[in-house]
Write a structure and sequence with these properties.
With 390 residues, the chain is an alpha/beta fold. The chain has a domain of 235 residues: 3-Layer(aba) Sandwich (Aspartate Aminotransferase, domain 2), CATH 3.40.640. It is built from twelve helices and 13 strands. The protein has a seven-stranded mixed β-sheet, with helices on both faces. α4 links the parallel β2 and β3. The longest helix is centred in the middle third of the chain and has 31 residues. The site of pyridoxal-5'-phosphate has 17 residues, from α3 and α4.
């Protein structure tokens, strides 16, 4: 999905020429500059570039002080990392339904809240913005934190505000499959200094020895290693300059295709909580029934997939969650921790009927920012032809 060219090669070359690839105490400070630029772009006070989106989610939960004894609400349709991050801090993921837009259903969030609930993880899956107004209202009413999983939504918006900046902390991924990428990478954003300090400490196990340790307002605790390097920083600085152009091109393609598919008689384009803020990476085709959707998807040349087939994104395929294997040893397994006994940890394959219905009737067409007019028209023709065959 991302675009990459000689600018990234030159930026990496400049870092290598300094032989200072470590991000701390070096000359070019590419990672640090990216953090400043990312925070400014997203609209937050702080940003941390790190090794992955999963790392950013875990550091976000650490930042908000979430741990054993806490339930965190996560949608049943997302990449498993949204739930595994919760387990990584010793808390329990509670699964919620999605709505017609494929993002977490606020009505079901309310149903899943218990006295143990500490946070909600709205996931802007496929760049579709969640219903943040409703989610913020619920969070306020029940005194819950919001950790936005914007790992599939780099640069997206909700009602004009960048995704990731609406909740308490936001997490992004820059892995190979994302809109902007350094192969691997992630970032955390927040306006909360305490969350930032804790995330900085957690993401860099050597934080106590860094120059930035003097700015921490909390004592340094033991962290891990999710630190990144200046090569990733240099690539991401160039990638950032490409981001809004990619989104603009994708949105044009999505609009053209949406218009072309009006009244096709077989599917509708699924609704959005804010089509203006949508990333445009996917077009969700919603069929009336699972059987027709399956027939459509049987043509493997169309360039998309039936959502139910997206394995690791469907809750019942998250075997470590479903089978309560939340850690490498029994005593550290959050499902066994005494603090977590009595929490909501029952998962069954049929526990989210609305989600099952939607994933069986929704086909995701993946869009490419560099498609030519001719390629777009070929796609439209192929899809309409398929509609006439089923
Ligand atoms: C919704 C979601 N959350 C979290 C992640 C984890 O990101 P990473 O692969 O950078 O760890 C991904 C990655 O694909 C994702 O799609």
């Amino acid at each position: 999905m991302f675009r990459m060219g000689k600018e990234e090669v030159e930026a990496v070359g400049r870092v290598i020429a300094t032989k200072e690839l470590f991000r701390v105490n070096n000359g070019l400070k590419e990672a640090e500059k990216f953090e400043e630029e990312w925070a400014k772009t997203i609209g937050t006070d702080y940003a941390i570039l790190m090794s992955s989106g999963t790392g950013a989610l875990i550091a976000a939960l650490v930042g908000m002080g979430i741990g054993p004894g806490d339930e965190v609400i996560v949608p049943g349709y997302t990449f498993m990392a949204s739930a595994s991050a919760v387990l990584a801090v010793g808390a329990i993921p509670v699964l919620a339904e999605i709505d017609e837009t494929m993002t977490v259903d606020p009505a079901d969030i309310e149903k899943k809240i218990s006295k143990y609930t500490k946070a909600i993880v709205p996931v802007h899956i496929c760049g579709y913005p969640c219903n943040m107004d409703a989610i913020c209202e619920i969070a306020k009413k029940h005194n819950l934190y919001i950790i936005e999983d914007a790992c599939q939504a780099d640069g997206g918006r909700y009602k004009g505000t960048r995704l990731g900046s609406i909740g308490d902390v936001g997490a992004f991924s820059f892995n190979y499959f994302k809109l902007i990428s350094a192969g691997e990478g992630g970032a955390l954003v927040t306006n909360n200094k305490l969350a930032y300090d804790r995330a900085m400490i957690y993401h860099d196990g050597g934080a106590a020895f860094r120059p930035y340790a003097s700015d921490f307002e909390v004592p340094v605790f033991m962290g891990t290693q999710m630190r990144t390097n200046d090569i990733t920083g240099a690539i991401m600085r160039v990638q950032l300059t490409r981001m809004d152009g990619i989104i603009a091109d994708l949105k044009k393609i999505k609009k053209t295709m949406t218009e072309a598919f009006a009244n096709n008689g077989k599917f509708v384009v699924a609704p959005s909580h804010d089509i203006e803020g949508d990333l445009g990476t996917h077009l969700p085709l919603r069929f009336a029934d699972a059987e027709t959707a399956r027939k459509f998807a049987d043509d493997k040349e169309l360039g998309g997939y039936l959502v139910v087939d997206s394995g690791k994104h469907i809750y019942y395929n998250w075997s470590p969650v479903m089978e309560h294997r939340g850690a490498h040893c029994d005593v550290l397994n959050p499902y066994n921790l005494p603090q977590n006994q009595g929490l909501n940890m029952t998962y069954t394959k049929d526990m989210l009927p609305n989600t099952l219905d939607l994933i069986n009737r929704t086909y995701h067409l993946t869009l490419h920012c560099d498609w030519t007019q001719e390629e777009i028209q070929q796609k439209i023709d192929a899809i309409l032809k398929r509609c006439s065959e089923i």
